[in-house]
Amino acid sequence: MSVQTSRRPQSPAPGSSGRVPPVIPTQPGSGGRGPGGPKKERTKRKDPLWAKLTLVLGAVLMVTSGVAIVGSKAVIGQATNNIAQRNLLGEAGKTDAEGGSSLEGPIDMLLLGVDARARWAADDVRSDTIIILHIPASHDQAYLISIPRDTEARIPAFEKSGYPGGVDKINAAFFHGAQKGGGWEGGAQLMAKTIKGMTGISFDGAAIINFGGFKNVIDAIGTINICVTQDVSSLHMSYVDGKPMWNADAKKTGKRMKPVSYEKGCQEMEGWQALDYSRQRKTLRNGDYDRQQNQQQLIKAMAKKATQSGTLTNPIKLNALIKAAGEAFVLDTGAISIEDFIFTMKGVTGNDLVMLRTNGGTFNGNGERELLNEVSMEMFRAVKNDKLAEFVVNNPDVLSTRK
């Protein structure tokens, strides 16, 4: 079978229409379409596309295994058209010498979660969720490694936004890259460049995950099972007359507000609940480290539900799912077409998703900024050298366990 590819598009000049605006519902239940803009030109396959389909195409996390897809050719074509594709990696993409135009070896993707609001400007957003997705050359496992948002990092100069470079919290790299017309594309490029300088890892692809868009994805598959590890009250949402609302909108009603809360234990959550729970940070015992675990759990729960609910064999449900996924992501698969990326991941399921943590899942800094310990840096070197499975066996404490 021949492999169809398309090269990563060039970045638009600063101030051009290349900006990817944040599109987030202003309150739970409202809609919102994903960013528009030019798409990559792709040559469609002429043979039947029997490749397995991932629920969240950009993350390549929700892959089916042993499930026949109904209407594959039409589905893949629609999915490609619905996903905004931009150059998110810039100089941090794998070179040809590193296998950048091939998926035969290990695959590394950078997943950036933004938690914007519709009223925020495109250049006033930080990426508080930073995840490296590593798939070894065997393509039978997937690992998620979260980098703490407050990690101290040397952020390199970035000509597109005029940023001169400096030392800051790593989540600020996205902000600095987005300035002066750089938009979300520039933010992702500077983040990828910063992480490459810190870890040595180059990337095959990247995705900006609009966590607000995840609500629609979860709603498309029903509910997902989330295990709450500690009682927590939401800092972002309240009930007004029994209806969940953002606090800013709830205050405008002038009515009594009751904070949304989550009690310890496993439970089925609707999209807005799962999203709100995964946003909590300040009231958790281990702050951002606990939030990282919750967000990893959210992604894994979505993956498992997609493969167990029959959604992927129902063309009506599948089309709704793809539409929702298209609104939740901005994607860069580099020189590889989306369908080939998906096909390569066909052996990975939600159960094969291993969640890892840095710094043993607890604070390791000076109170203001986090510092990655030596074990964490060794883990990143293991990713670069495709030795992560061996590293995890020898360092089981890096596994993200739920208590």
Automatic annotation (TrEMBL):
Residues 126-307 form the Cell envelope-related transcriptional attenuator domain. It comes from the Bacteria. Keywords: Membrane, Transmembrane, Transmembrane helix. Pfam families: LytR_cpsA_psr. InterPro entries: LytR/CpsA/Psr_CW_biosynth, LytR_CpsA_psr. Residues 1-45 are annotated as: Disordered. The keyword Transmembrane applies. The chain crosses the membrane at residues 49-71. Belongs to the LytR/CpsA/Psr (LCP) family. PANTHER family: POLYISOPRENYL-TEICHOIC ACID--PEPTIDOGLYCAN TEICHOIC ACID TRANSFERASE TAGU. NCBIfam families: lytR_cpsA_psr (TIGR00350). This is Transcriptional attenuator, LytR family. It comes from Micromonospora marina.
